[in-house]
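Lab notebook, bench 4. We co-purified these components, and the gel suggests they stay together. Before we commit to crystallization screens, I want a quick structural picture of the whole thing.
Request: model the full complex, all chains together.
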Amino acid sequence: MITVENLTKRYGSTTAVQDVSFTVQPGSITGFLGPNGAGKSTTLRMLTGLTPPTSGTATIAGKRYADLPNPGRVVGVMLDAAAQHPGRTGRETLLLNASLLGVPKTRADEMLEAVGLGHAAKRRVGQYSLGMRQRLGIAAALLGDPAVLILDEPANGMDPEGIRWMRGLLQDFAVRGGTVILSSHLLGEVQATVDRLVVIGGGRIVANGSLDELLAGTGTLVRGLDPIGLNEALTAAGLNLEPQHDGSLRVDATAEQVGRAAAAAGQILIELRQSDGAGLEDLFFQLTTTPVAAAA
Amino acid sequence: MTTVTEDVPTVAPAKHRAEVATALPPARGQSFLKLVAIELRKSVNTRSGRVLIAAILLIALAALTWQITHLAQGPAGVDGFLGAASTGVMLLLPVIGVMAMTSEWTQRTALTTFTLSPRRVRVQLAKFVSAVVLSAVVMTGVVVLALASTALAGAVTDHTTSYAGLGGQLAGAYLTVALNVVMGAAFGALIPQTAVAILAYFIAPTAWSLAGPALFKDNANWLDVFGALGRIAERDLHGMGAETLTAVGVWIVLPTIVGLWASSRREVK
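Here is the predicted assembly.
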């Protein structure tokens, strides 16, 4: 379990992270979402003891990161897949870590196979593609059989097949009681993988909750044979709506309410469903752009 | 440069926390000895690390070859061979110290290293020890080459060979190597860019040894670290014990302390 309490980081007069608090429970995958420069990486670096916070605390399984006797056996961390020595082979990279973590050499080979790098084990990391380095980073994070995973932009540079593979891996890890936090600015990637979301914008937490909670209330999407007539009917029924550029309407109401109002006015519906699609994207931009604009 | 296609096979996602995981030995802390062993391994398991060591040995070999083919009149002493072999080596060995400290930052592996071992001062001290051990090993290689050259000179030329004063000379050489490497490592800890740290290591004390005497006359000796190291190598302080200690303190001990402090607080990007 990860607990972050009132973390703040200032660089001179610039505040990179302000009063950030959240928890990540075992058995769940939390997406740490925000645009570039929002403070995601700074928060994760404070969580892993690489950057001293200006104020606030972060603990993993109740301990500050620096107080973990052998952190790799408790937390698997991948903050930057590029931070591997290009002159070492993938296998040598893992063997070094295995020695430090006190796990047998065979574990390194198992992890290379598990992330699909068995064929490239003896190649130097400098020849790896970014996607392969991400896999190596994930293998390194899993090496000590940790209960917690902290991954910064793990999908970066991965092909769609790789992203799908990682999604399965992380969901499996969480099902076995693992705690996962992964950051991303790729909305679609996060939406399909995580259970919970912590959204950061301008250094502050702007949303924190389960994916369902955060996506709820985005309303119903409806399309009628006669868009203008449908618009008038729904407005007359007292429903709030917002026309979309493709001619459909997004209504702040349940599908039943929309259906009844349309039926009462004799409007023919050709599409009626919960508004998803760009739901998270809308939320994302709405949540992350407002505080920045307000602060400017 | 070769491009590697990402022809990775799809893998069943259930393997990473398999039953084998429970068979892992219990988690234990990281002993200082283990940290030193890992740092030693890191400094020889990359091509750049191996090239540096090979270059040092090759330079010694070249110097020894020249020495054998240009023997002066009289007996061929081991001191002459050792001196010839060490000159270039003494210049390059401190680079091992510098690189032990800087390569993590230039290659960005500091991120991984300090995530796995968050108590950074221990890791940095392990790097100091590992750099000293590695350079002592390399120096031993050079000594062996020098001894072999002396024997060779005795066998193939008509010079008589002498091994007089070998013990004292070796003691001085190893001590100087250790101090030089610690000084290099201290500069590396202080300045995390390899090239800048190496330049600072060579230029700052040299600049002082050139400018100091002009400005401060004999008082410049108090901060002349190369002079101090030379006296240590000769195992004769020429009555300048206090000056020697001061120079070592200012150029080696002080940068070590400040370097450890700075690198333990430096933000890892």
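The CA atoms of residues 187 and 220 of chain B lie 21 Å apart. Worth comparing against the SEC data before the next meeting. DSSP finds ten helices and two strands in chain B.
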